Amino acid sequence: MSKEKLIIFDTTLRDGEQSPGAAMTAEEKLRIAKALEKMKVDIIEAGFPISSEGDFAAVQGIARTVKDSVVCGLARANKADIERAGEALKDANASRIHTFIATSPLHMREKLLLTPDQVFEQAVDAVKLARNFTDNVEFSPEDAGRSDLDFLCRIIEAVIDAGATTINIPDTVGYNLPDQYGNTIRQLIENVPNSDKAIFSTHCHNDLGLAVANSLAGVMNGARQVECSINGLGERAGNAALEEVVMAVRTRQDLFPCDVGLDTTQIMTCSRLVSGITGFPVQPNKAIVGANAFAHESGIHQDGVLKSRETYEIMLAEDVGLNSNKLVLGKLSGRSAFKDRLEKLNIMVDSQEELNNAFRRFKDLADKKSEIFDEDIQALVSDFKMEE
Ligand code: KIV
Ligand code: ZN
């Protein structure tokens, strides 16, 4: 039986761009959008058209170019924002308007200066207006992670009746824990009478380092869209990292009731593109896309991987677009990785004794140098052969 689809909604170009210092030009955003389209991302949130002329042009350019992904624009729940988003998206092959308003008591009272009833009315009006531009409308109750569940149920029921087809549940400040966030998704789906008329979506921020865990808990509890970004880029500590969500779902298909339709071999290209454009480096030990994510250094691990990759690899480097895994030669490496590297470099050793000598020299060098490169090995063996 084929599984349900998990929709991947990428917000690198919108929430990702809200990372301080990550502003992108329209041309840079278009390059990233094309890479996301090639990776078969379902929905690309291209920007916030009313925020600036430049962002309007960026969203419009992406809407005119991208054909295989739905192009989405963000709008607050008001007429000007929604009309501007509608205008930016009008030439898209497939478009979505994503409209939002805060629903937590704190945000309504301190930021919006609106009563819950006023927020309710504004949300419904916004969704109705957005439906004049596209039949694909997403509604987000901002700060849902700190909102009252009964109020969320009430507003969500009404916006679905007004025409929202996706209900996104933002943990805007990354406050929730996985069980709590998963429960919220489940209770909303169970208690909103018309919940079957919409797809429920996760949008988790990483303030406590839980964005991916919370998103996956949401999926386990019925969400069928995840909002995420390349390298986890996003406001403050960022959003759920797309590559981590996607590879978790792929790698643990034994647990997930749904699957993603992405071409995961494009992950590394997208990660490097976004890092290069924004100037935000990827930490070496970052899951999936860090330089060390598929590298083995200790002798015990290298020996295991050479015998069977599954001993220390739960997914293949090739699946995320790398040519292969990496056995890094250093002071912790063992004889089997060293011998393997000699073979790959076509270096012949004539006897066990010669191998032992070469290995001893390699270990001496590794004590002085943190990583041993192929050139080091070539030099080390040729010196040794000359001395013979
Ligand atoms: O984090 C958030 O609440 C948002 C909304 C605009 C969806 O980014
Ligand atoms: Zn956000």
From TrEMBL:
<keyword id="KW-0963">Cytoplasm</keyword>
<comment type="function">
    <text>Catalyzes the condensation of the acetyl group of acetyl-CoA with 3-methyl-2-oxobutanoate (2-ketoisovalerate) to form 3-carboxy-3-hydroxy-4-methylpentanoate (2-isopropylmalate).</text>
</comment>
<dbReference type="GO" id="GO:0030145">
    <property type="term" value="F:manganese ion binding"/>
</dbReference>
<comment type="pathway">
    <text>Amino-acid biosynthesis; L-leucine biosynthesis; L-leucine from 3-methyl-2-oxobutanoate: step 1/4.</text>
</comment>
<keyword id="KW-0464">Manganese</keyword>
<dbReference type="GO" id="GO:0003852">
    <property type="term" value="F:2-isopropylmalate synthase activity"/>
</dbReference>
<keyword id="KW-0100">Branched-chain amino acid biosynthesis</keyword>
<dbReference type="GO" id="GO:0005829">
    <property type="term" value="C:cytosol"/>
</dbReference>
<dbReference type="GO" id="GO:0003985">
    <property type="term" value="F:acetyl-CoA C-acetyltransferase activity"/>
</dbReference>
<feature type="binding site">
    <location>
        <position position="239"/>
    </location>
    <ligand>
        <name>Mn(2+)</name>
    </ligand>
</feature>
<protein>
    <recommendedName>
        <fullName>2-isopropylmalate synthase</fullName>
        <ecNumber>2.3.3.13</ecNumber>
    </recommendedName>
</protein>
<keyword id="KW-0012">Acyltransferase</keyword>
<keyword id="KW-0808">Transferase</keyword>
<comment type="similarity">
    <text>Belongs to the alpha-IPM synthase/homocitrate synthase family. LeuA type 1 subfamily.</text>
</comment>
<feature type="domain" description="Pyruvate carboxyltransferase">
    <location>
        <begin position="6"/>
        <end position="268"/>
    </location>
</feature>
<feature type="binding site">
    <location>
        <position position="203"/>
    </location>
    <ligand>
        <name>Mn(2+)</name>
    </ligand>
</feature>
<feature type="binding site">
    <location>
        <position position="15"/>
    </location>
    <ligand>
        <name>Mn(2+)</name>
    </ligand>
</feature>
<keyword id="KW-0479">Metal-binding</keyword>
<feature type="binding site">
    <location>
        <position position="205"/>
    </location>
    <ligand>
        <name>Mn(2+)</name>
    </ligand>
</feature>
<dbReference type="GO" id="GO:0009098">
    <property type="term" value="P:L-leucine biosynthetic process"/>
</dbReference>
<keyword id="KW-0432">Leucine biosynthesis</keyword>
<comment type="subunit">
    <text>Homodimer.</text>
</comment>
<keyword id="KW-0028">Amino-acid biosynthesis</keyword>
